[in-house]
Fold each of these.
Amino acid sequence: MVVTKKSIIGEVLDADMETAQYFLAIGMHCLGCPASRGESIEDACAVHGTDPDELVEKLNAHFAKKN
């Protein structure tokens, strides 16, 4: 999976639940909420005041290790 800022959080989590650790590490503790699962990474990072590019980089590195 290739993650972008436009990727939907629920789709990333569905692809690999281990990615939850990266969201939790930046304060996104609402991963079970139906609204958050439908949000893009970019939108969620804006709400939480975090850098979406940094999160995307970590998520892509995670998926790269899996392949």
Amino acid sequence: MSDANTTLDWTGGAEAIVYQQCAACGARQYFHRSFCAACGATDLAEHRAGGEGTVYAATLVFRAATPEAREHVPFAILLVDAAEGFRMMAHGANDLTIGDKVTARFVRFTGRLVPYFERTKP
């Protein structure tokens, strides 16, 4: 899943969150593309995120979409503003609310390794 131009992240089984940064305008994006979504330039560098962020939105899921997900119900889906300046969707602790400072760890969800955010300890 990775090649010479790609850093392995959780989508490939590694405990990492990877984002792209545009050399032309400095914009950061989580979804990997061959171009910058802000300016269209194609000179993108990949970086590993530190796993820190702030909850932008949170919702609890009470109905599993698949039989494999039933064991996890209820589970939280979050939008997290990463400290590096991009927004991502992830799983997280059920008691998180908007504005909470969070830190990622990695857990298994329906057999796949996924980022899971918990409230940052003071």
Amino acid sequence: MTKDPRQGLGERGEQLAVQRLEREGYTIVDTNWRCAGGELDIIAGEGEVLAFVEVRTRRGPRGPTPEQSLTSVKQTKLIELARTYLQEQDLTMIEWRIDFVAVEMDGRGVLQRVELIRNAVTGW
């Protein structure tokens, strides 16, 4: 079975995000955690804080930037998924936040940037 090019791009973006997070001192707890409500890309610890990290990867000059693709609907979904994870793991008293990693490549797939935005989703 041939892999969807978008899926391969997303996986590459997540690998780059993990590398960036580790360079920043995060400890990776889990990746691609799934439940009935959806998926969390990366769950990582930074000190005493648990970070749920959404990764958005874009290739080429067309379309929205990774940051523009993090809509209010997606932000609400991430909050719901984070709460589900915390309940399932019995971590409801832990400090947590939602971070974001934007990955951009040019049309040939050459990496342009990997940007980490801490506390990207607020209002919960």
